[in-house]
Amino acid sequence: MTSTSFEAEVFSTLGQRSEWESTKQWQKRLRFLQAAIKEIREKDRLAVLSATFYNVKYLDCQYDAGIMTDIRRFDPDSA
């Protein structure tokens, strides 16, 4: 799968706005995905990080150090 088709596949599913996301939250999550997709080429891992990003950023959830390191790597403003 080429880089472009992989990205298109990821954004066709993970890039959709969830009903509970405001437009601003969705846009920030998309920026997070755009940063993460440059390094992570596994759709399942991107899905987990995308959901985790939302939980950390907007629900004040905390996760183990490894996951928090990944979240901060792709969004330095996160906890």
Question: Which features characterize this protein?
Answer:
single chain, 79 residues, mainly alpha, 0% strand, globular
Structural class of the secondary elements?
Answer: mainly alpha
C-alpha geometry: globular
Give the SSE order as H and E letters: HHHH
What count of structural domains? 1
Could you tell me the radius of gyration in angstroms?
12 Å
Mean pLDDT: 92
Which strand-content bin applies to the residues? under 5%
- Sheet with most strands: none
Structure annotation, total helices: 4
Oligomer: single chain
List low-pLDDT spans.
none
CA(first)-CA(last) distance:
34 Å
Helix content: 55-70%
Give me the count of strands: 0
Domain XRN2-binding (XTBD): 13-79
InterPro entries: XTBD (IPR021859)
Protein name: XRN2-binding (XTBD) domain-containing protein
Pfam families: XTBD (PF11952)
Plain-language structure description:
The protein is mainly alpha-helical and 79 residues long. It has one domain. Helices cover 66% and strands 0% of the residues. The protein has 4 helices and no strands. α2 packs across α3 (43-59). The longest helix is centred in the middle third of the chain and has 17 residues, at 43-59. The model has no long low-confidence stretch (mean pLDDT 92). It comes from Vitrella brassicaformis (strain CCMP3155). This is XRN2-binding (XTBD) domain-containing protein. Pfam families: XTBD. Residues 13-79 form the XRN2-binding (XTBD) domain.
